[in-house]
Amino acid sequence: MASNTAFALLALVAFGAVAEGIIRVPMTKVSHSRKAYKNNLVAEMLKQKYVKGHKFNNLAYNEGLSDFENAQYYGTITLGTPPKNFNVLFDTGSSNLWVPCHGCPITNIACDFHNQFDCSASSTCTSTEEPFAIQYGTGSMEGKVVDDVVCFGSGSSGYCTDNTQGFACATKEPGLTFVAAKFDGILGMGWDTISVDKLAQPMDQIFNNSAICKNQVFAFWLNRNLDGNAVGGEMTLCDTDPAHYTGDIAWEPLTATDYWRINLGGIQIKGQQITGSIAAIVDTGTSLMAGPTDQVKAIQKAIGAFEIVNGEYEVLCELIPLLPTVTFTLGGKQFDLTPQDYVLKITEQGISVCLSGFMGIDIPAPNGPLWILGDVFIGKYYSVFDHGNKRVGLAVAAAGSN
């Protein structure tokens, strides 16, 4: 529970946010161990997310895996009256809000370890008793739909839905993934067309309230350097923050309103054209950069990466300053990823390894082939999701902003 002083500070920040027509939601970053990248775990996660009907590969991993295994950044929302805080992952690659539910069975260990929503404790909640389930390869997230107030940031922020907002109250969570998670649930920020049970999203009501929301946009700044800085990043709702980027924003129109799907103009490295025009999805719920296997293999070869096991590639840490830049073309502009951007240095028990931030995954039609631009890319480039104009904007992220 936050202290009175912290609550007062949050209230002051929220008041200022309403005054400027923007809500700021600070985010915390979760660092994962190397295990999260082994045995094609990320590939399995992405297939469950983007390949309809994909069955989880138990040869790769024998624990349940949610499709948010490697999402890293989370922030606070409140639910109900009086408002109760929940930490949620803001995920542009899905479209449902769900949190653990009070009264979940003792077998749901993840529920016991996290904040739980109790509809009976909220004066504005209505339990619809409508069943809800998201299917995964080894199980499902199950629960029921409830209607209540959802607020971004604190309950006093003013950026709230009315009490008809539907979301899932989960009584069963898949596998062991969520047991040790720092966050309670997921707030999907894709389009309603891919929402399970076609539940409207909280942003819909926020965007329709022109009195508080002047622009139907949200934007992410992710802090990739946490040395001496506890701020993991910030999501702004209803406007962008010029302090978080430099230069102009390059805009790319959506090619569909399901995921945040755009057209990637091409990828180049060391003068080699890896791909021409191809579909891409900007996904805050994915840590790595993922693309067709043959294209990723060409990149791994060009950067001198070597395969360790099951699609996991490493580079020699001492060679990072000598590695080439990978260039993406979006919105008619070039976006460079230096080796410092695309190599993930993970240190465990005093030993450091340097993992390639690229991974191969073949998504079949109709969703694929495509590239998934995850946090490796979004961390370098401030990302604007313009719901009103159906486009994505990208600009160089300002280093060290807060």
UniProtKB/TrEMBL annotation:
Q: From which source organism is this entry? A: Panagrellus redivivus (Microworm)
Q: Which residues form the Peptidase A1 domain?
A: 73-395
What is the official name of this protein in its record?
Peptidase A1 domain-containing protein
**Matching InterPro entries, A to Z?**
Aspartic_peptidase_A1, Aspartic_peptidase_AS, PEPTIDASE_A1, Peptidase_aspartic_dom_sf
Q: Which SUPFAM superfamilies match?
A: Acid proteases
The protein's UniProt keywords, in alphabetical order, are:
Aspartyl protease, Disulfide bond, Glycoprotein, Hydrolase, Protease, Signal
Q: What residue range is the signal peptide?
A: 1-21
Gene Ontology cellular-component annotations: lysosome
